[in-house]
Amino acid sequence: MPNNLVSSELRIVTAGIGPIDDALINQSSIPTTIQWRLPSDPSLAPILSSIALSDAVTKANEKALTCLTSARPHLIGIDTAANAVDLEKGTFLHAGPPIEWERTSGPLRGALIGAALLENSDETPEGAIRLFENGKFKIEPCHHRGAVGPMAGVVSHSMPMFVIEDSITGRRAYCTLNEGLGKVLRFGAYSKEVIDRLKWIEKVLAPIMHETINAGDPIELYPIVSEALQMGDECHNRNRAGTSLFIRAIGSNLIQLKRPSSDLAACFSFITSNDHFFLNLMMPAGKLAADSARDIPGSTIVVAMARNGTDFGIRLSGTGDEWFTGPCAVPKGLLFPGYGPEDANPDLGDSTIAETVGVGGFAMAAAPAIVKFVGGTSDLALTSTQAMYDITVGEHPLFRLPSLNFRGTPVGIDAALVCRTCQVPFVNTGIAGKQAGVGQIGAGLVEPPIKCFNDGLKRYGEVSKVWLTSQ
């Protein structure tokens, strides 16, 4: 026993028992409090113990973290889905894990119907539904084609897609161009104004944007993300700074194109009036980073989180292409006038790739103004980010948070830590109306189901059993 134990200042740490904290405070002793929770599933205790005692798992996760934070995505152009992801006519991509038509939610069905109408102007909603029902039209996750899609995430043959390339690995990822908010395809709307906007994006905006991008050097996206975090964005539901920085990066080349001035003005106006335009660049940039951390034996790092409006799914680095799913929750937040909680659909979209790579809900501390859009308080923006350090294995070297003394954002979600602490990732999101054709009705916050992480870790234990014992 140290000789100075009694004479030195006593430091007390408490874990999970509130009355002990209160008693110590009443005695003028301020304890350090650890937010301790029981593991989410007691049957996971053996694998959690193996992981905690394994230096090999730690090294595998360090490797995954290095891959995750080393990506350097840049925008190189725009191409059609037919070319970019080899998408044939009659096949439609969607957000989230795989799902059958019979289980699709209202907004996903609405977006699929709208995409069918976009591809064939003679089609009717009823006819499109029959083609999906009888299997003539196929549906497949965006993630399976190296792509990501916001909300319903529907992609069809002719749609233009951003082409993002990682200068480190040469890998590419893709995403459609952002339509804006409200009655838009990604929220399940498919009225004439929605289809007309999509056709304008295809015929006018996409060609002009492609020519603009190729008029200069490839546009590095992470410097924009990094600066946007310094300017009040969190790069998922708040992209005002990112969109402004992007239009600044392309503005000079855009106005010098030999195109009708009315078209150039329309493109400029569309982007500047759409604060979420940069989201569809952040997402494929995140996809590149997450994919670079896939397939690392022994790693418990989450490399995808996605929702289809019915199921919330995750993938782990050490379990290959498998999805682990649980029921999507209905987001809680701020709804547009005229809508109530009963009108909201369960969460959907691939945009949780933002949280997977350390922004979005993990960077809320950078964007206290986001609570005006999704609900909550400015304190919530700070505490949500701080809580995410408990379930991640590192901090992002490029994404810094001014409100936390420029600490890196928490990154590298560890499924083992999620299961051990029962702390799920913090996600902010848009809210779609549950009826097909309605569109966006608000924005809010949502909790992923712990079941995804429990199931993922159980499977990890099965596929890694030999690997763990051989290290």
Largest beta-sheet characterization:
4 strands, antiparallel
Strand content: 15-25%
Q: How many structural domains are formed by the residues? A: 3
- The poorly predicted ranges are none
How far apart are the termini? 37 Å
Give the beta-strand count: 17
**What's the Cα radius of gyration?**
23 Å
- Average residue pLDDT: 91
Task: Name the strands of the widest sheet in spatial order.
Answer: 7-6-3-8
What's the structural blueprint in terms of helices and strands?
Layout: E1 13-15, H1 18-26, E2 32-34, H2 45-52, H3 55-70, E3 73-80, H4 81-84, E4 91-94, H5 106-119, H6 125-133, E5 138-141, E6 160-166, E7 172-176, H7 192-213, E8 219-220, H8 222-230, H9 240-255, H10 261-272, H11 279-292, E9 302-308, E10 311-316, E11 324-327, E12 332-335, E13 348-349, H12 353-356, H13 371-374, H14 378-388, E14 392-401, E15 407-413, H15 415-421, E16 427-432, E17 440-446, H16 450-463, H17 465-470
Parallel strand pairs: 1-2, 4-5
Antiparallel strand pairs: 3-6, 3-8, 6-7, 9-10, 9-13, 10-11, 12-17, 14-15, 16-17
Helix pairs in contact: 3-11, 5-7, 7-10, 8-9, 9-10, 15-16
Features:
471 residues; alpha+beta; v583 fold; Enterococcus faecalis V583 fold; 3 domains; 4-stranded antiparallel beta sheet; 38% helix
Describe the model.
- This protein has 471 residues and is α+β, with helices and mostly antiparallel strands.
- The protein folds into three domains: 1-33, no CATH class; 44-69 and 293-470, v583 fold; 71-283, Enterococcus faecalis V583 fold, CATH 3.90.1710.
- Helix content is 38%, strand content 19%.
- The protein is built from 17 helices and 17 strands.
- It has a four-stranded antiparallel β-sheet with strand order 7-6-3-8.
- Strand 16 (427-432) and strand 17 (440-446) form a beta hairpin.
- It is globular and about 75 Å long.
- The two termini are 37 Å apart.
- The model has no long low-confidence stretch (mean pLDDT 91).
